[in-house]
Design a protein that fits this description.
The structure holds two protein chains of two kinds. Chain A is α+β, with helices and mostly antiparallel strands. Chain A folds into two domains: 1-80, no CATH class; 87-142, Helicase, Ruva Protein, domain 3, CATH 1.10.8. Helix content of chain A is 32%, strand content 18%. In chain A, the strands form two sheets. Chain A has a three-stranded antiparallel β-sheet. Chain A has a two-stranded antiparallel sheet with strand order 1-2. The termini of chain A are far apart. Chain B has one domain (15-277): P-loop containing nucleotide triphosphate hydrolases (Rossmann fold), CATH 3.40.50. Chain B has seven helices and eight strands, in the order H-E-H-E-H-E-H-E-H-E-H-E-E-E-H. Chain B has helices spanning 15-29, 48-61, 78-82, 130-148, 165-175, 189-202, 260-277, and strands at residues 33-40, 66-70, 106-108, 154-160, 179-185, 208-220, 227-228, 243-249. In chain B, strands 1, 2, 3, 4, 5, 6, 7 and 8 form an eight-stranded mixed β-sheet that branches. The chains are: A alpha+beta, B alpha/beta. At the A-B interface, strand 2, strand 3, helix 1, helix 4 and helix 5 of A face helix 1 and helix 4 of B.
């Protein structure tokens, strides 16, 4: 979807996004010519249809799903884990181990996190780090 | 006034660029795969998964490197069939390495991540309208999963498709023209009719349909070893596709070392490979 400022005949730029709130996102566009601003307000179905493509939405949303660091984009995809809003299990992960976890798709990440933390806890490890991940891979035959 | 195509980009999110980038990640992940083969049917319950695993093991036994991607996100069966059990997906330094079964076949199946009885749910900001977006989300999720796996150099990657003619068509388009298809049917007119419809739909894609496999072509008695008809053979029009093999139903197929079904699967695997290599 693109927006055109008719008086200027120039494409409008996405300025900011907010939401989703109750399934609705607000996307503000502005015309680089005259500065006119308008907002597109999505209904929950529209929000979900875009989210289902696994893409990020935002002014600089060039990253693909699974790589995005934009909290809003992650929320729009229902990826609370990437938004830093979930996974607060209290079990510590090193930054490197966390980075490895983020190489797998967001929708299987909670399954991985739960299983790996159980593996670490059962063996008395205080933290999930690269060595724990390697040991878990070997244990699970991966 | 400018039209849609006069304007580069979409003014912000570059959604199409992101979709193209996803596509490139999938292609990059599959770059080492020599043959991409989707096993589908249109009809459910014809033994696609069992046959996929049987073919994969036959290929592996003949020295080829093989993996299976279980594309049925909601009814995954490959993990259980292959006996790899439930295990969390543990990423390596570069990504996810598929677990292997006892025959060395790599298996990527949500069934190994998700305990039986649990269904795959995606968060939604809308309610009561999953029919609108669920298929898109499943394909996006499948793409993310395929792209995140370190498939490495494979002679064959078999994609075990979910049932449904429309789904088979969608998967063919999703996997791209490099994917060849093997269709599975039962001997009954009902099943062959659905498979014929699926084959007709696939005619609208650029994918190559290698042929069909008639599964459960008979019942192999474990007592006397004789193969007898299991279904009433229909008199409908023949499928206008090469027959790659007829595999009888054999109780305990996975355990049978050299029964009639195993032999039929090995012969089918040879024909599939010949068709892929262009000598059939």
């Amino acid at each position: 979807m693109k927006f055109l400022c008719v008086p200027c005949d120039r494409p409008m730029k996405l300025l900011s996004t907010s939401g989703p709130e109750a399934g609705s996102m607000s996307l503000v566009y502005s015309c680089p010519g005259c500065g006119y601003e308008m907002a597109m307000l999505t209904n929950p179905l529209e929000t979900q249809v875009v989210a289902s493509l696994g893409v990020a939405i935002g002014p600089e949303a060039t990253a693909t799903a699974g790589e995005s660091k934009c909290p809003f984009s992650a929320m729009a995809r229902g990826d609370a884990d990437a938004a830093g809003l979930a996974g607060a299990t209290g079990f510590p992960w090193t930054a490197d181990a966390q980075q490895r976890l983020e190489t797998i798709p967001a929708f299987v990440r909670p399954m991985a996190k739960t299983g790996i933390e159980k593996f670490a806890r059962d063996r008395g490890y205080p933290t999930v780090d690269d060595a724990v991940l390697d040991e878990a891979r070997q244990f699970f035959g991966m | 006034m400018k039209s849609y195509f006069d304007i580069a980009g979409d003014g912000g999110s570059r959604v199409l660029d992101q979709v193209a980038a996803q596509r490139r990640r999938i292609e990059g992940s599959l770059a080492g795969v020599r043959h991409l083969v989707a096993v589908g049917s249109g009809k459910g319950g014809v033994g696609k998964s069992t046959l996929s695993l049987g073919l994969a093991r036959a290929f592996a036994t003949s020295g080829l490197s093989v993996a299976i991607f279980d594309a049925d996100l909601n009814g995954p069966s490959q993990a259980q069939l292959a006996g790899i059990g439930i295990a969390p997906p543990v990423p390596g330094p570069e990504g996810l390495v598929p677990p292997r079964d006892a025959h060395g076949v790599g298996i990527v199946s949500l069934g190994s991540f998700l305990p039986a009885g649990n269904s795959l749910e995606f968060e939604s900001v809308s309610q009561g309208d999953t029919q609108v977006w669920r298929a898109s989300r499943e394909f996006a999720a499948s793409g993310e999963l395929i792209a995140s796996v370190l498939w490495g150099d494979l002679d064959l990657l078999l994609v075990d498709l979910p049932p449904g003619s429309e789904r088979t068509f969608q998967w063919a388009e999703f996997l791209g023209r490099e994917a060849a298809l093997v269709l599975v049917t039962l001997p009954s007119d009902l099943s062959r009719g659905v498979v014929a419809r699926t084959a007709a739909a696939l005619g609208r894609t650029s994918n190559r349909v290698l042929g069909y496999v008639e599964n459960m072509s008979g019942y192999c008695c474990p007592g006397c070893g004789e193969v007898r008809p299991l279904f009433e053979r229909g008199e409908g029009a023949p499928l206008e596709l090469p027959c790659l093999g007829s595999v009888p139903f054999e109780p305990g197929l996975g355990r049978a070392v050299d029964g009639p079904a195993s032999r039929a699967i090995r012969a089918t695997a040879e024909r599939v490979l010949s068709a892929l290599e262009g000598s059939a």
